[in-house]
Amino acid sequence: FYHMDLYGSKERFDIFPEELPGRGDRSLGDTRKESVLSSEKVPRSQEIGYDMEKEVAELAKMYGLDEDREKELELLGGRVEMESRWPPARTQKAGSQGSIYNASKSSTSVKDQSQSTKQQGLSGEASQDEDQSKARADDEAESNIWSREGLSSGGMSDEWNSQAVSEEQEEEEEEEVANVFCSTCKIPIRAFDKLFGEHKDHEVTQLPSALESEKEEIHKNICKLEKQIAQMENVASHLEEIFLTVEENFGRQEQNFEVHYNDAVQVLAQKYEEQLEALGEEKRQKLEALYEQLVSSGKHLDTCKELTDKTHELFLENDKAEFMKKCNFFPYNYRLQEFLKQEVNLEISTLPDFEERVIDFSEVEQLMNSINAIPAPCAPVINPQAPNAATGTTLRVCWGLFSDDTVESYQLCYKPVSHERHSDEQAEHTLKVKETYCTITNLLPNTQYEFWVSALNASGISPPSERAVYVTAPSPPIIKSKKIRSCENAALVCWESGDINPVDSYTVELYKLTDEENDDIITESIVGIPNCEVLIHLQPTQKYHICVRAQNLGGSSERSEPVLIHTTGTCFYLNEDTAHPLLAILDDGFTISCDELENPECDLPVYDNSFTRCIAILGSLIPFPGKHYWEVEVDEDTEYRTGVAFENTPRHGHLGANNSSWCIRHIITPSRHKYEFLHSGMTPDIRITIPPRRIGILLDYENCRLSFFNADIAQHLYTFKSRFQHYVHPCFALETPGILRIHTGITIPPWTAL
């Protein structure tokens, strides 16, 4: 810490004398000489000590330590002069070094005093007392200085403590976050301010509601900006294409002048230069006009993107209060509203075509009559269809011209492709376009169209291009909701194509519905489905929205109308094609009724798959392994049959009378209600004392069981044990006029476990 010159100086050896080695045996004369010299050096050492303090102060000033100490003393409130103290850079370190120096100084003084006492007596004692009193005075002065510094630091710590308390109070106030939004002042406030503050009479809303409304408004603005960005990008792209077209047309006409005027260059030199200059001036005017409009479009586009970025940045703000503050006081709001009010000029300022100039060829009329100014163009080349570039009603057709011909416009022709013999009779449509692409609208979905194109200029029309076949995207499929079957972990979805022509494949999209998530988020997609049905594995006790898309070369169709599926239990529908003519299905689709039985074999229309003798109906096939449960609500005075049957069960017989059906039968006898459990016409002898009003049916494919229960009292009635070779249909029949109500989508009750 101290300068090295302090320890290497000559005075240092005078203040701290050391015994040289080999001088241990000294004579009495030498000792007396040393005592005399030591008594003479006492006042000199005091002077040297004073000079050392001055030197240390100068060194501290030289290295800038006194300025640091003055700043520290000003902060601590002390008023100590730098020249009277050692300038420590660290308080503890400086104190320790100062104490070491004082200890060494006092030990040296005691050593000198002891030697002087032995030789000089009273004079040595006087010098010793004087040195000790000086050491005590130095120690007391130094302790006073440190005590004052301690008081100053204590006062400073009190100031810091008071400041920390105030900061804690401010933090506690900031912790009371605003939780409502003042619609009058357009700022977030605390609920306490609404009840007792200055916002008492103002209209307030919940902060989340205000946040959602502001986000919705921002989303609308973003959509508007994105729409304008898309429009301006299209205009800019169109301008660039016209810009290039102007350049190409200019180059072609220039080349045309050069090629056809070479034979008459001497006669037409002057006129050539005039025409070329006029053409260049027209080009310059066109390019300047297009450039100005392009620059203006670029500025408008940059402004749109800047506002969009700022709006996105605001939209991603997570702090609700900060978000609402920025929404209402953000300086770009006024600019955004004014910008959206501006009308954008989307019209092209100039056309790429040049004026037809009349040149006086009277001097060389005969020569010029033999020259064709512009040849007829060659046939264009039409591009094949790009994948996923079509919609259900639109097609984008592109072509190219692989020559240097001058073209003023194109003629695009198309017609639907028909595989019938008289396909040539299809109506043709013709469009005239300027660019090398065209979007055709108002087309039929999933339909093939044949396109060909020709190029035109002042000299004539080119031969047509080769014909290319394009196809539009399909129509959305139509899901057959009445044929959907589901259980706790799977669903079988069926649909039909919305088009006459076949499609390549289908895609099924699943949307898992929850209370927190948005139902627009696709949970799973199943692609490449070749036919119109698919078996989907699902999670139990969930709700799903299911949509279907059709795919072909042109692209994907829109989503079909979604259907809702619950995986709480087995769901099926009644198959109307199997119903007996006297059996009616009510509007809910799960209630069957029969009003008359006078002529069971009536003359009503009968379908090929309908029951003819038994007034019965089958439900949808249950094609899922595992357990399935449903219930049938019955009346005590109605005779009925219900159970399961194979697809090929005879339609001219009764349920349970063959080996392809299993059912419970209820009949009323004069003495009691009789219940039979029929399979192949046989039934066990079982008596049921409590007639069931609600019959539970449990189908267990894996354990080969079909069980019946009285669901009202959770009573097991009977169980068939049979190995089902195929999947089965639920079946229902009425033997007297009455009603049966079927309940599906029920979770399997725990009391059905056998």
Automatic annotation (TrEMBL):
- Name the Pfam families on file: fn3, SPRY
Q: Which stretches does UniProt call biased (Basic and acidic residues)?
A: 17-35
- Region of interest (Disordered), residue spans: 17-49, 76-176
List each coiled-coil range.
Answer: 262-293
Question: Gene3D superfamilies, alphabetically?
Answer: 2.60.120.920, Classic Zinc Finger, Immunoglobulins
The chain positions of domain B30.2/SPRY read: 552-751
Keyword vocabulary terms for this entry: Coiled coil
SUPFAM superfamilies linked to this entry? B-box zinc-binding domain (SSF57845), Concanavalin A-like lectins/glucanases (SSF49899), Fibronectin type III (SSF49265)
Compositional bias of kind Polar residues = 93-126
Q: Which residues form the Fibronectin type-III domain?
A: 380-476, 477-570
Record's CDD domains? FN3
Biased composition (Acidic residues) is annotated at 167-176
Q: Which SMART domains match?
A: FN3, SPRY
Q: Does the keyword Translocase apply?
A: no
Q: Which PANTHER family match?
A: E3 UBIQUITIN-PROTEIN LIGASE TRIM36-RELATED (PTHR24099), FIBRONECTIN TYPE III AND SPRY DOMAIN-CONTAINING PROTEIN 2 (PTHR24099:SF6)
Q: What is this protein called?
A: FSD2 protein
